[in-house]
Design a protein that fits this description.
The chain is mainly alpha-helical and 269 residues long. It has helices at 7-23, 25-46, 60-84, 90-94, 100-128, 138-166, 171-183, 208-221, 229-263, and strands at residues 52-53, 58-59. Strand 1 and strand 2 form a beta hairpin.
Length: 269
């Protein structure tokens, strides 16, 4: 009896895609490492219990909910930029004749507005259903969100500029993202890392994402004022990260556009 499914052709197509996947070595490596480090991140989170978090004078539920809210409020900026500016739509987008800066900001405008609108019911749910205890300093929180936005937006610019040229995920911003999931204190205090290796939490402060979560939590869990020296120092470090990354992101994005135009590969995938 004839087999209705052509196994040999299915396998041939499978091998084709396998060879294609292997040809992009950076994508293959990041896919494997991403899975391993993802398990590590959730494994560390699972070993942490709902106890006090002395760093912010709060409990773990409040700590976790603020981390999730920051992720839901800020990270969509990066996702919006990358979804609008990708190798297979970029050429069409640039045909509008608008300046690159106008296109970039306009492309993330609605994504950011939507994330802010969704942030409000999420915060209400976290406070009244799950019992998160927030002590907010409005001025500090507004400044923290603005600085966080600059940092995330700049990293997205770097990623997009590199992806325009490579057509695949870039290892630089991928590495930052994966490292942040483990070291930035998104779902557990970074001091918990020292339970596995003393001094490991010191690595966290190299990452700009760690400072994002730190200043937002300072202003929303402790009601910290910018006039306090230790708080002002944290905000200043985040500002420095933001300015450096913003300049770097603008240069890399411009370089990616120019390089792709010279290669004639704007519309390639």
């Amino acid at each position: 009896m004839e087999i209705p499914i052509e196994i040999d052709k299915i396998w041939a197509l499978t091998k084709r895609d396998m060879r294609l996947w292997r040809s992009y070595k950076s994508a293959a490596i990041t896919a494997v490492l991403g899975g391993l480090l993802g398990i590590t991140s959730w494994g560390l989170n699972a070993t942490y219990r709902n106890v006090a978090v002395p760093q912010y004078n709060t409990d773990y539920v409040s700590f976790l909910i603020t981390g999730i809210l920051v992720t839901n409020l800020i990270l969509p900026i990066s996702q919006g930029l990358q979804s609008r500016f990708n190798p297979w739509t970029l050429e069409t987008v640039l045909m509008t004749g608008l300046r690159s800066s106008t296109l970039v900001l306009g492309s993330v405008g609605w994504t950011y507005i939507l994330s802010v609108l969704l942030f409000i019911p999420q915060m209400i749910l976290g406070v009244f259903v799950f019992g998160a205890h927030l002590v907010i300093n409005p001025i500090s929180l507004i400044v923290a969100v603005l600085l966080s936005t600059i940092v995330v937006f700049s990293i997205a610019m770097i990623s997009t500029g590199l992806r325009i040229v490579t057509k695949v995920s870039d290892p630089v911003t991928w590495g930052l993202g994966v490292a942040a999931s483990v070291f930035a204190g998104v779902t557990f205090p970074i001091q918990h890392l020292n339970s596995y290796l003393p001094g490991l939490s010191d690595v966290s402060w190299i990452l700009p994402q760690t400072w994002i979560y730190d200043i937002v939590r300072l202003s929303s869990l402790e009601g910290a004022s910018l006039l306090e020296p230790s708080v002002a120092e944290a905000f200043l470090v985040t500002l420095c990260f933001g300015l450096v990354l913003l300049v770097l992101g603008a240069h890399i994005f411009r370089w990616g556009l120019i390089r792709a135009k010279k290669d004639g590969s704007l519309g390639w995938y």
